[in-house]
Design a protein that fits this description.
Elements lengths: L1 E5 L6 E5 L4 E5 L2 H7 L4 E7 L3 E5 L3 E3 L2 E3 L6 E6 L3 E8 L13 E3 L30 H12 L1
Parallel strand pairs: 3-10
Antiparallel strand pairs: 1-2, 2-5, 3-4, 4-9, 6-7, 7-8, 8-9
Length: 147
């Protein structure tokens, strides 16, 4: 899968090459505030599979965004460092092609958000003994972390 995306004003454009490791719906209060929505949809993908095709985004404590319009394009997570990106699916030109494989931090989910049946959901992050990733997904994360 190859998908292009960018910010609202068009100053920054990027390409995501390959399927995401997973796509999550994050219902934490931080994601709600950062997106101005009920939850964020993030495509977790290796950083080397995302390339800039236009512009120079800026990175701050919240993530990487367009300096002109301020749209957050992707962020990192302390568990994964800068080798795994959490790309904001809404910034993709064809964002409808990706839907969440799982939902996290549903303890702070808005009550009117109805989660689809059969999609794993976690009160926070998966706890000890709970499997978040398949063997293939775990291998991709491990490979990215060793680069």
């Amino acid at each position: 899968m190859t998908l292009d995306g960018g910010c609202y004003c068009g100053d920054v454009r990027y390409r995501m090459e390959g399927d995401p490791i997973c796509v999550n719906g994050c219902h934490c209060r931080d994601c709600q505030t950062l997106t101005g929505a009920a939850f964020a949809v993030n495509a977790m993908i290796e950083a080397d599979r995302v390339t800039l095709s236009k512009g120079e985004p800026v990175t701050d404590g919240f993530g990487t965004k367009c300096g002109r319009c301020g749209v957050l394009l992707w962020a990192t997570h302390p568990m994964f460092g800068d080798r795994i990106l959490f790309l904001r699916v809404g910034t993709l030109d064809e964002s409808e092609r990706l839907s969440p494989d799982l939902h996290v931090f549903v303890r702070s989910k808005h009550p009117w958000v109805v989660l689809p049946q059969g999609v794993p959901a976690f009160e926070t992050l998966p706890g000890e003994g709970e499997t978040l990733f398949s063997a293939e997904q775990q291998a991709r994360v491990a490979a990215a972390m060793q680069v």
